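Co-fold these.
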Amino acid sequence: MVRIKSVLGALTVCIALIGYLPLQPYLGPFARWFFPVSLAVGLYLQKRGSVVSGRILTPLSIALFLYFASGFTMDRLILITADLLVVFLAIRMLGERSGRNCLQVFALALFCLAASSLYSLSALFLIYLLLLLLLLAVSLVILTFHAHDAEIVLSKSDLKKALSVSALMPAASLPILLFLFVLLPRTQFPLWDFLNRSAPKTVGFSDKVDPGGSASVSEVKSVVLRAICARVPEEMLYWRGIVLNGFSGNAWVRLPTPPERSRRIERGVGVHQEIYPEPSTNPYLLSLNIPRSLSGARYQESEDKVFAAQRAPDKRVKYDAESTLSEAIAVPGGIDREFYLTLPETVSERLRAKGRELSRPGLGTQEKLKLLERFFREQRLSYATSGLPTGADPLDAFLFVKKRGNCEFFASSLATLLRLAGVPSRLVGGYRGGSYNEMGGYYLVTEDLAHVWVEAYQEGRGWLTVDPTAWSIGFSHREGAAQRMRTYLDAVGFYWNKAVVIYDLEKQLALVRTAGGKARSLRLPAGWWRPVGRYALVALSLAALLALYLRRPGSAQERVLKRFLRAVRKRYPLASVEQGGLFALAEKVDDPQLREFVAIYGAALYRDRRLQPEELERLNGLVGRVGTHLP
Amino acid sequence: MASTLLLGVAAVNTGNNLLFLIVSAMLGFMAVSGILGWLNIRGLSVSVRFPDELYAGTPTQVLIRIENKKKLLPSFLVTATVSGNPTSFILLDPGKPQTGSLLLAFPERGLQSVATAVISSPFPVNFFVRFTRAGVDGRCTVFPAPRAWSGPFAAGKPGSGQASSSTAKGYDGDLAKISDYRGGESLKLIHWRLSAKHEVFKVKEMTATADEPVLLELDLIPGNSLDQRLSACAYLVNRLIKGGRPVGLKLGERVLAPAASRLHRLALLGELAVYGKD
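Predicted complex below.
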């Protein structure tokens, strides 16, 4: 026997935990600790059979509400709400487990889960939601029993029945959930947008390149974007983000681009990408180098093929990009050479000498690039992310002293040397590489792949892509086994985002449109029914066979035995066939009808033959008598 | 419900799809719980069993038998209400009838019927209570409420002078004669004093008490109204027959011959119940 009250108590604790856990990482320290402490105290008190009285809890709730409300600002709205929800939940855990209080716990837990969706859009949410749904359904049913009679006690089998019927509810509501999720109307522009502001992320990609700023750079493995597209040769895998064309002191920054007119890139392989960037504070829309056009987002395109969104994609969005895997951006009208030849504030004497050496007349851009590549290789520069050159002239230290650096050093020294040699140049920031997820058919680009390379201007051809980092020793993009392991998990998260998080009204309409269009344009070829009919016939006969197999009548022999056992159980409830077999049963009960049945049945069974029709008739008669004539 | 609305507003206004997911889940849950609640009170058959004797205005225990005729789904927390009186069942397994009881009082005498029972249940979620009606088709005869009345039969108890002895042998009548013990008599009847004087045991032979049959004439029973007379009559019928006295009844021109059995008593009460109701 099980007391409904204790079942309800256990379920309430589980539900409160599901409310607390998803919010826990985002809570203030007070709420974070108050909940587990209250839960523990509540459980301890309950074990001792006492609760904290409402006369203490209500003033406590009011006091805590005032305390949190005093720190209220519009920016901290979500934070304070989340803290308050958890604090109220914690207070409820201290109090009496009455029906009303339990309902409050359920509602608060649901609100906590809802609040967690304003912090994190991870697929883990779905697991919490399904779990909460299941527990809520069961708890509400149990609560109904509790309301009927608080002291009700159910047998284990009755409780099992009640629980399984209540577990049916969430299972049956899943299809409705999916249906409603697709159908519920969305607004084009959220009215309470301030609720959606997510915390800024640390970025590997930045709009300023300042080599020597720190001795090491940390590699963050967080996801930058996922792009559905065909596989692209590894050496062409550059995701273009920003172009840095001028200086602020010694640091490369993006200055307003001088007017120039680049031509539409015609040559090269076109690649279509469907890009799902992670929320970030950076407004630049990334796409494969060199992007031709973008759609699906509001942006401003610059002549240097930089697409800046009107606002940073601080929530999940999706855009489409068309790129051409080309190595040059043609600029038929020419460029503002002076602008692209500006030098940083400090350039070391060794660098200037190198530049002078290259700027001698007679050398074309291609020759200069070749000479520079030879120079870089001869210097035996190695790629590193720690022990980087710092100090007053980090580029000089990189090229001639330490000879180690990351892509920023390679790119900015090459671009500076090119400018010294009279070749207009600029830096391009973005990402290099990405792991292709075969399962999902998309590239996963992570923050540690942030990269800077160079574009050098060659008269007649335009801006050429040059990646000096490739000239280093030990620069390669690593794709380990661990990476492959991660791809599966990542694919789950990706589809979660694609199907749920960025689902929108337009998609709803598009779905309806395509479905309508498909239905209208459905043209069946002549004679279509022949193959369809054949398949249908096969399917039907398979279904019929399956139905027959599932509903096959047990043999007459089995049935009579089943009936016999049932009748025996009814007549001799204490005798059990499990303890010895049919003969032992007949011996024990000492009933002539039973003995006769066992003798006939056993004779057939042990000689491995089927029962004769007259034997069967006799057995059926015996069973009838065992069942009806009670001793 | 309120929380679904609140979350719905939040979802629409923030455009947060996860909130939409919660709202969809809650709406789905509401729909399914509605269907489950509807199923819970469907397929229940209710019947009422009345006791043999029902008197107007007297609460009497009535049996309610309820059976879940659904194939698979058990029904939970079902309350069957008959004429405003409820009885509850925690769990009704399919195909396993259960019986509950409730106190029922009919204000009027005569042929009464209970046509429907209201079946209700708060299952699965205690936000609403669902109702349905089930035909019970219960018919019963409600006897007039007995009105204690002390008339000429007030002392009509055996041995009070009203009783007369019959010729049959018995235990509690008068002493008829003394005879020899034949081995079958009760020890109580042995006349010990006489036995001491004889060689054989002497036993007393007593007569059985038998009361004189009474014919109750409704029109002669005092009372302000027909119902009062019927009530008094019902009281007398019960009182006298329970006292072992054969009672007959004269209702207008109809005469029912006196008898003292229980069935006869119920028949008389039945006649009183419907008298003047046609």
